[in-house]
Design brief:
Layout lengths: L7 H7 L5 E6 L13 H16 L4 E3 L22 H17 L4 E6 L5 H15 L6 E6 H4 L20 H10 L55 H22 L13
Parallel strand pairs: 1-2, 1-3, 3-4
Length: 266
């Protein structure tokens, strides 16, 4: 079911059932010289929409939040960003609106890497505020992490994993929104040399060390990975897997029991 197409009476009735409210989280930001700035918002919205078509009785699809936490891309232009603090509060406010509407199963479906940290912070805030007074299951799920192997070692993919305006995102857009891709401008960016701890790409395993740099320090054109390797066939492969894994998760999530406070009062 589509939240924005319904009256408040119908929405209120859905909250009484076992349905999950799905709120897609996107971004409007530069994606190299070859992709539209709407890439993250377009992809997460289409994945969520296809899942809703397959599970209309289990998904109440909310309007996508199109703006993300993207300050690290601002120097390239073409980016509309919310600060980390503001973004966290926006997500908190939207989830609390759903809770106020009576929903106690909420999936934040993320489509932008920069949203992960503030998204988790929003969960921490919500946990602190709501778990004392209400019973709910609220989760953050990033679609390429949810899809697992297809986005890390898929049989059709030639580079290690999804990054930014890379083989993966470019392939998805070629499949779903070819009008938003200019393959003539898709090329590997100049990147810093990797070191044993910080790879700056996905070609080395995570070893417990993180850093954060604006994109202009790690890419000369705003992209990463190997966008020139993208194909429509790869995009269909990724899209199908992303939708299948999201549907599988929703089927499970709708049956999750609500946790109770196990701390003894004695």
């Amino acid at each position: 079911m589509i939240f924005s197409d319904l009256s408040y009476e119908i929405i209120n009735k859905q909250a009484e059932g076992n349905i999950s409210a799905v709120l897609p989280l996107g971004a409007i930001e530069q994606h190299g010289p070859h992709l539209a700035v709407s890439t993250d918002t377009s992809l997460v919205t289409r994945i969520a929409s296809q899942a809703e078509k397959l599970r209309p009785d289990k998904i109440l699809l909310c309007p996508t939040l199109p703006f993300g936490s993207s300050h690290h891309h601002l120097q390239f232009g073409g980016t509309l960003s919310l600060s980390i603090t503001t973004y966290t509060q926006v997500v908190v406010d939207l989830v609390e609106s759903l809770v106020q509407n009576g929903f106690n199963r909420i999936i934040l479906l993320n489509g932008h890497g920069g949203n992960i940290v503030p998204g988790k912070q929003a969960l921490a805030v919500l946990n602190d505020k709501n778990d004392k007074t209400s019973t709910s299951n609220i989760v953050l799920a990033t679609y390429w992490e949810l899809a697992g192997d297809a986005f890390t070692k898929g049989s059709l993919m030639e580079s290690p994993a999804l990054s930014h305006a890379c083989e993966y995102e470019t392939s998805l857009l070629l499949h779903l929104f070819p009008e938003k891709v200019n393959m003539k401008k898709a090329e590997r960016a100049t990147r810093p040399d990797p070191n044993w701890y910080i790879p700056y790409e996905e070609e080395s395993p995570y070893r417990g060390v993180s850093t954060h740099k604006p994109t202009q320090f790690i890419s000369n054109n705003g992209s990463s990975g190997e966008p020139q390797l993208a194909t429509t066939e790869k995009g269909k492969y990724l899209f199908d897997h992303a939708v299948q894994c999201l549907v599988k998760f929703v089927d499970s999530f709708c049956n999750w029991p609500f946790l109770i406070n196990l701390k003894s009062n004695e």
